[in-house]
Amino acid sequence: MDQDIVDRIETVRNRMAAAVSRSGRELQDVTLVAVSKTRTVEEIRAAYRAGMRHFGENRVAEAADKFGELADPAVIHGIGHIQRNKAALAASVFDWIQSIDKESTLAALARHRRDTPIKVLLEVNTSGESTKHGVRGDDELRALRDAVLSEPGFELRGLMTMAPFSDDGASPEVRRCFSDLRELFLTLAPDAPKSFDTISMGMSNDFETAIEEGATMVRIGTAIFGRRGER
Ligand SMILES: *Cc1c(COP(=O)(O)O)cnc(C)c1O
Predict the structure, then answer these.
(1) What does pLDDT average to over the chain?
(2) Does pTM surpass 0.90?
(3) pLDDT tens, 197-206?
(4) Atom of ligand 1 nearest to the CA of 79
(5) From residue 190, how far is each of 111, 152, 179, 187, 195 by CA, in Å?
(6) Ligand 1 pocket at CB < 6 A
(7) Which DSSP string do the residues of 51-77 spell out, in sequence order?
């Protein structure tokens, strides 16, 4: 199992390097987040030994359990919807929260101060799919940005999106979602603090397209750990 994970990480890194060079950038310009939701602590340890330091989890309690056991210093990204009754735990477990799309979530998190600010990405619904979370309109996005900026417990780092699921991760529709997010990022950047530097987009089936369209962070589960539900 360990060796499979090590090999898959190497393959992902090579594919990332090729996509990064197509976009005229360098590998270090794109952060790889290993999405470890549903994976065991042993699988996480294997990825850690292969050099992974950023991990993504969508369930607060699961993340707390697993990373409590890991002991090694990792950067933990919350990538799923956060229920208000889990806000206290989320604020203590997650270094980054990538899935902020409501002021009420921010308010619930802000009640639980920590030593270092939570790094926040605003989730944008670029696909228009009603099954997906994320802010839709410009006004809503600006209001959410202002709410993050007004709270010292948060550091505004950027934007996040998910493309529609498709077998073809390079379809025009997937590409459009990613280029829309980058456009939005560039629109907000001039008025944003220096810390606003992150465009999180791209998963196992579409990360190369995302990198070509300007992703600075990709979130990859299946291509690192294998299919979920198969061990
Ligand atoms: C599960 C998940 C991923 C990773 O998906 P894979 O297809 O396994 O790479 C990335 N981002 C979010 C928000 C997720 O929920």
Answers:
(1) 95
(2) yes
(3) 999 999 999 9
(4) 13
(5) 29, 20, 18, 7, 12
(6) 35, 37, 58, 79-80, 162, 203-205, 219-223
(7) T--EEEES-HHHHHHHHHHH-S--EEE
